Amino acid sequence: MLKVRVIPTLLWKNLGLVKGVGFDSWRRVGTVMPAIKVYNTRDVDELILVDIAATVDQREPDYQAIEELAAECFVPLTVGGGIDHLETIRQLLLAGADKVAINTAAYAHPELIRQASERFGSQCIVASVDARLHEDGRYECFSHCGSQPTGKSPDAWCQELEALGAGEILITSIERDGTMEGYDLPLIANIRAAVSIPVIASGGAGNYAHLCQAIQESGASAVAMASILHFTQQTPAEAKAFMAERGIPVRNIHVQY
Amino acid sequence: MSVCIIDYGIGNLGSVRRAFEECDAHELFISRDPKDLAHAAHVVLPGVGAFRDGMQLLKNAGWVEPIRKATLEDGVPLLGICLGMQLLATTGSEGGDVPGLDLIPGRVVRMTPTADDERIPHVGWNEVHPVDHTHPLLENIHAGSDFYFVHSFHMVPDQAKHAAATTPYCGGITSVLARDTIVGTQFHPEKSSRFGFQLIRNFLAM
Fold first, then answer.
1. From the CB of residue B27, how many other CB atoms can be counted at a distance below 10 Å?
2. CATH class of residue range A5-245
3. pLDDT-derived band at A90, boundaries 50, 70, 90
4. Hey, which residues 34-53 in chain B have their CB within 8 Å of chain A?
5. Most CB atoms within 10 A, among A122, A214, A248, B165?
6. Which of A152, A184, A155, A149 is nearest to A169 (CA)?
7. Domains recognised in chain B with CATH numbers
8. What number of C-beta contacts closer than 8 Å exist between A and B?
9. CB–CB of A118 and B50 under 8 A?
10. What confidence tens digit (pLDDT) does each residue in B145-159 have?
């Protein structure tokens, strides 16, 4: 049976690991390399590493730094931030990324998703979508690290991304991000219903029960999280034990060594 | 005893190299020159992406005959990973029929979900159940060990004896192929943490 993935998200800015609230007020929470080593030994299912300043600073990813990080990572690594060309993706894959997450560039150049999935395979293209809930109950996608409205509704945009060839959707709730109040369950359920590719829930995880909700109530294939790991004593291993007790298939716990 | 990782333009070569280094592979080299196969004790064919593109790139760079000679005539063990495993087949069906390396008879076809919660691509950790427990590649790999998969197509071998392990998805897929010392994994051992390393060490001992 395919296991539900528990995925720490590492947000990276100027070589430091940061975490904010609502895509703002970033706090430095450590350095990236020790975090990757710790997550490896704890057997997380995957890692997402996003350079949150790359697009805003209009620069390419730091390939050298990513190569050094990837060399220590023996679980699948998704790298995002500042990806706007096929050549950027090629360089990231050479540097040791297994998948890339594309967000802002997809709005201006949807063809990038198509070309990237044709060249590198859908399985390596994660479409990352940041959505905000307006007071009138309407959701809207935002680009540039949550700073610019796009006028697009998340479910329609995710369908478009799937049709262009994206292999997975990483859906993040902007206002839940960093609050640890739980995922935006209706948002995730909407995306789950809108597309047939796997959906990774992101934004708001604060305890193990939140992870279960995203999976059991909203149908997520994977749960991404950050603050819960940075600011509490909760761990990916405990999260998986908790999920397993509630009937969610997780990796490796039934196998005898 | 050198290990040759074939670089034909697609594939997560960095990840594969690092994992083999971690498994104490000696004289590891990434090669763009088919002549290098003459010095290889083990060959690794990685790859992600589409079957048609993968075969085209192998052909363009002149790898097809040297790979067939090294494996079939010289008996050099070869490990195909993900697309690299699929390319061992007779035929791929992505975008019309395309001939493969034809090292293990079979076809590569798109997966079809058999349950509501099965999504394509098949992404994530799933169980590997050895069929052929005696194959050296699967030594100390316990039934139900989880490995990391990411793919939309799968290889259907013509002969059941070449399916060395299966995985419960889309009605059951072949996750390890083996014909003597020509082997392949649909999953990514280089990204499958300690079970993946066990499998790589098993391969290096073949």
1. 12
2. alpha beta
3. confident
4. 48-50, 53
5. A214
6. A155
7. 2-204 (3.40.50.880)
8. 113
9. yes
10. 999 999 999 999 999
